[in-house]
User: Fold this.
Amino acid sequence: MSDDPETARQIEELAADDRPLLVLDVDDVVLEFIRPFPHFLKSRGFGLTLASFRLTGNIAETESGRLIEQAEVTALLGEFFDAQADWQSMTDGAADALAGLGDRAEIILLTAMPHRHRSTRRAHLDALGLNYPLLTTEMAKGPALAKLRGAKGRRIAFVDDQPHNLLSARDSVADAHLFHLMADNSLRAFLPPVPDDIVVVQDWHEAAPKIAGALGL
Assistant:
């Protein structure tokens, strides 16, 4: 797994911090994604059928019924992220949870999206009062987590809705505390059970005390 050089550059800009580290995915962890995205698609003449835990193969042109290809999905996602301030609100309980954890832990937002969307997302997060550092990555999240943690071995927790990101984290930081949180828990039906060392949480109300415990806060 290789590092993303732009992510590494963003990490180098961060101020030194030796508090326990809490790294959070953004879409469907801090900001709603899978609830507003179908409404965005409808406004563009497309429909989403969630028959599996992926977008490609599940988005169709409303008029023709044609399932759209990966390149078209990527383009629509780009449009959505350009307009995210119009569509994406905070997930339930996130603001309170982060406010309660943020004075004792270093909170970093790590989002898998093209770097060109970073400034738009930064502005939207700031407007919502979520002024935590934001990192974008176009590669696996594990190497970014290892770089973020640094050499001191401080406690680290990572929250994501995508199991493959949690597994990437485990590969790079063996003792990371991993939490699987999804804004829409009905989507769990499409996923295989997550490994036992990943803590499944239903929402932020359940996650916050478990994260605090894992980080020794």
About this structure: The radius of gyration is 17 Å. The CA atoms of residues 137 and 150 lie 18 Å apart. DSSP finds nine helices and eight strands in the chain.
